[in-house]
Amino acid sequence: MSTPLISVQDLNVEIKTNRGLLKAIRGVSFDINGGDSIGIVGESGSGKSITLKAILGLLPNNAHVSSGKIFVAGTDISTLDKKARRALLSETAGMIFQDAIAALNPVITVGDQIAEVPRFRLGQSKSESRQTALKLMEQVGISDAESRFGLYPHQLSGGLRQRIAIAIALSGSPKILFCDEPTTALDVTIQAQVLRLLLELRKNSGLGIVFVTHDLAVVNEICDSIKVMYAGRFVEAGNVHTTFSTPTHPYTYSLLKAAPDPDEAVHRLFSISGEAPNLTAPVVGCPFAPRCFAADDHCLTAEPALLSIATSASACFKSSGHDTWAASDSKSGVK
Ligand SMILES: Nc1ncnc2c1ncn2[C@@H]1O[C@H](COP(=O)(O)OP(=O)(O)OP(=O)(O)O)[C@@H](O)[C@H]1O
Ligand SMILES: [Mg+2]
């Protein structure tokens, strides 16, 4: 088997908070290959953004990787100095965050912002980097790139600014694009345009996509595989269609039940009654057990590992009974 572009192995991240040490990520493992499209879903606070930030070396100052390894193109990044790590990461991965639009520099023209990495990191001349930027603007569907190159962010619409952010993320020619809720702040029509663009990039250039979202319909639309995150761990992983048709973790089952019809134009955020555990305290038992319709006493005493079942993986002692859940979920508490 070829080396994955990125391999995350048993990642643990701790964050110092004023409530104590938070075990935000607890044993996350996964591989990312070129052309993959992986959706990561889970409630607010489950650890989706911190997982991406740990991979990209962008953890906040109060957070650190307490154990586990991240390999980029086969190299353990903890063995590299900061400069080498940044160089390796930037040629492998680009990123767009939720506040990508706000992160644009208001006093530099959008063209120069896209040309920055080609010029100063890839060593292109001024005119070469301008050509690269114009090409990227066209690639992300910005018409009339020549005349828009010299505009400032505030002179463009929200949709165009989001495309600029994507062009910047692609400007180092990454093999994988990490997207952390990049469409949440956009209106539905622009969201659809951005998703279409990402699908095209994947099809035409084999770009791998890791897409964090609250929106299961978006995962359904653009991802092949899904990781469901709960309390700092992946609790279910598998092919999107299989997972959506036969979820093997009660949390996934409840999320899907709480989700609106994927075809509905307006997607609301899912909500399941109860709260996720406080991860500053030790985890005893399955962290989802207090909210779970299938839990029994055993679930309150031991935390299940993420184990393979057929082509999926599930961290649930009860996953073998998943075909009977529809009949037994009356206490699932889905609102
Ligand atoms: N800078 C920080 N300081 C303290 N705690 C933090 C910090 N950033 C994240 N956390 C905590 O780490 C946990 C994981 O946060 P993370 O941002 O990864 O959640 P998320 O799954 O991305 O949620 P959302 O869907 O709301 O974006 C949460 O409990 C959060 O409160
Ligand atoms: Mg987040």
UniProtKB/TrEMBL annotation:
Record organism: freshwater metagenome
Any one annotated GO CC term: plasma membrane
The UniProt record lists the keyword Nuclease: no
Gene3D superfamilies: P-loop containing nucleotide triphosphate hydrolases (3.40.50.300)
Keywords: ATP-binding, Cell inner membrane, Cell membrane, Membrane, Nucleotide-binding, Translocase, Transport
Localization annotation: Cell membrane
InterPro entries tied to this protein: AAA+_ATPase, ABC_Ni/Peptide_Import, ABC_transporter-like_ATP-bd, Oligopep_ABC_C, P-loop_NTPase
Protein name: Unannotated protein
Annotated membrane topology: Peripheral membrane protein
Xref: PROSITE patterns: ABC_TRANSPORTER_2
MF term (GO), any: ATP hydrolysis activity
One of the GO BP terms on file: peptide transport
Domain ABC transporter: 6-256
Chief localization: membrane
